[in-house]
């Protein structure tokens, strides 16, 4: 697999003066930077998240949210996100105070292009180092024994195959019914591979079926009044791209994905040339519709290496162990002690067929932790010891935490998974004091 060139410096530019915004955009673009420009801070806040790998350049004097308030809001998103403030002479004291609070730099208008480029390059280097240290801390804190749980023959086979595939660089197709653990398996392959410190980007059915799927996936180069946008595929450069439920893609989109699989190139909308990528591709497909494989060219391109995920009903001896893990995790996320599992719950765990597989078992474990599993004794919290709004709030918070964990704190993926407007997502995160960075 050929090595890819270093990705361009990414800059989020916030400037309300259209002439200065266009001039700054051109200056940075000519230096090879990937720039996304905004006319106000609110639009930038809606777009930025803690995964942004670049630098923010923002004016101080702006209508609505000014640069200082914008900087304070970004500190809540990610305290390591570098912000360069551009100021008039009368704002220098404010900018100096912001630097004491963590701003990366400030430039006094009118500033030389060389000074802007120098500040952006320095801040970009610090950002890359901060993200690398974050990945290393996450890796160090991750359970080194992380693997497929269970002692059944099916679990042992699956564990062995995943560990073997992870040591290679080959692309993989994961098959199985809904809820059998394909997403977890994809993440596990990445975490056990040499790419573990690089990006893991999930593209799910919500993105593949979206009306702007090509823009979201392939991005867009600037031109004809359009701002540039880095696509999800290019964000995976150097790491792993996970296409979850590729059957949701349209025929045109599938053709472009086939080209990606074969050539390892991405061609953003409006781009004059393709850009080479260094990525590993993992595809997940539902097993219950084998006839779809005849219409899926990407399936055939990667079909040489397939991993089948068994039904939970086919590994019954593993269910109690997996249930205990789910209960412990949901209790930790809810900030409550793990409950004592009653006899009625254990009977249900061991006798139920779990047609929803791991998803259903996880949901049941969450209900047990929250006291919502009604087969328990009359001492259940549903007997009136807690008001309904508190139970609903606990459940909503747990759903958000579970989704944040699955998305690794990625707001765009969280929005697609929950099919909820971005503003509502941020309102809910603020309501429950959930920081996406904690889940990365």
Descriptive overview:
The model is unreliable at 1-5, 140-145, 290-295 and 376-384 (pLDDT under 50). The strands form three sheets. Strands 2-1-3-4-5 form a five-stranded parallel beta sheet, with helices on both faces. The protein has a five-stranded parallel beta sheet with strand order 7-8-11-6-12. A two-stranded antiparallel ribbon has the order 9-10. α1 links the parallel β1 and β2. By secondary structure, the chain is of the alpha/beta class. The protein is 46% helix and 12% strand. It has helices at residues 18-30, 41-47, 67-77, 92-100, 113-141, 153-166, 182-191, 205-208, 213-218, 232-235, 251-263, 297-302, 319-334, 343-351, 357-370, 388-406, 411-418, 422-431; strands at 10-14, 34-38, 55-59, 83-87, 105-108, 172-176, 200-203, 240-244, 265-266, 275-276, 280-286, 306-308. The protein folds into three domains: 10-140, Rossmann fold; 153-310, Rossmann fold, CATH 3.40.50; 314-439, no CATH class.
